[in-house]
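Database export, one record per block. Field names are fixed; values are copied verbatim from the stored entry.
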Amino acid sequence: MKSRREFLKEAATGALLLGSQSKMGLAGMLDQNAETGKSRVVVAKDAALHGQGMQLDEKRVLALLDRAIAAYTGHDHTVESWRRIVPQDKVIGLKVNGLGGRGISTHLALVLAIAERLQQAGVKPGNILVWDRNARDLRACGLTINTDPSRVRCYGSDVAGYEEQPVAFGSANVRLAKILTRECEMVINLPILKDHELSGVTFSMKNMYGVVQRPDELHANGCNPGVADLNRIPAIREKVRFTIGDAMSSVYDGGPSFHPERLWYPNALIVGEDRVALDHTAWQMIERKRAEAGVPTLEAAGRPPRYIATAADATHRLGVNDPSAYT
């Protein structure tokens, strides 16, 4: 019998080929709770996720992922849950975040667990594309660059490039990554929960700064309305359809770079489709931790994440930021 580590390596290299060719996807059926009509956000936690030396327990990461997806879809059967989320015959992008460097980037264990489950659900290895801005950010996540179409692929926009023609909405006038526009049918967003020195919080929506050539042009005024405008661009709004947010470790102050003295272990995954509700949930988690640590609120620090309300307004309509409107 293969060890867990061997199994994960096979998932990463594309040796694992399991599952059917069902074409069932999101089809709008998961975005709202059928009984309440509310957007759904799942926060799954495991206090024992980090083992000796605060290293992630890979088996527990996979189990936590399974529990989060089952809770979101309402299906206990792992493969069936994934078939309700992704098309099996299309390229699925996994947009990670390695900007903060080692210590505060999307965790490798989570990426490998998702790649494993996607293959079991029927997605071919070569149809899984792990990506970010560049090789540096991907390596910060512990990933290895690979362009072999027969295996799970991993490379950045430094390889694939950006579109020549910009697209615009409001303050966002950007050149999008070709990985997003030309290669991926659907993107699963894998941000890592962090405080941010300008925007207050960086999570689901702000992770899209990694899909444009010049994200620095969207940082004015605390990234408001930059974040909301960017996420309103059709290719992002329509293709980035599901988020599995990495809140297994986080920085609650001094982000987005790594500050070990402000490191925190929420030991959680935050899952959903409503990017605004996800970011609002992330914001509240950071505020609770800041209060516990005796750090001023983000409002008091002069950097509340105002882009969240903007994303929910009548112009953007990207989701809901009222906890009574999501579960």
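Remark 1: The chain has a mean pLDDT of 90.
Remark 2: The first strand starts at residue 41 and ends at 45.
End of record.
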